[in-house]
Amino acid sequence: MRIIVDETLCEANGMCEMALPEVFFITDDDELEVRQDQVPKAQMEDLEQAIRSCPRRALSLNED
Predict the structure, then answer these.
(1) Does the domain made of 2-62 have the CATH classification 3.30.70.20?
(2) Long-range contacts of 44-48 (CB under 8 A, 24+ apart)
């Protein structure tokens, strides 16, 4: 699975970063950076929670 960020919706609120800082990072320029494109299965529940926490629904998963 690959994390997709809709840049037109993302406001860099940081909810995803708070939920899963190993994967998401808000830069000093208020841009969302995905640190890991592929997430281990052990973190999938945390990743799904981080995606659900996005107030703008800018995050999704693509099953490659």
Answers:
(1) yes
(2) 44/1, 46/19, 46/20, 47/3, 47/20, 47/23
Tokens 């960020």 found at: 5
Give the span between the Cα atoms of 8 and 19, in whole angstroms.
21
At 38 the pLDDT is: 81
Domain segments of the chain as ranges: 2-62
Annotate 41-60 with b (16+ C-beta within 10 A) or e (fewer). Answer: eeeeeebeebbebbeeebbe
What count of other Cβ atoms lies within 10 Å of the Cβ of residue 37? 11
Q: Do 23 and 50 touch, CB atoms closer than 8 A? A: yes
What is this structure's pTM? 0.88
